[in-house]
Amino acid sequence: MKTLEDIKAMSYQEKDELEDLVLEIIDNNDLVKLKDILK
């Protein structure tokens, strides 16, 4: 889990990778992983 401050400090590439991960989890309808990331 990343805090908002952690995400703000990430590089553009790291944010893009995190976005890809979240979108993949949503596409796979994996609510458990999604809830874990969004804590």
TrEMBL record:
This is Ankyrin repeat domain-containing protein.
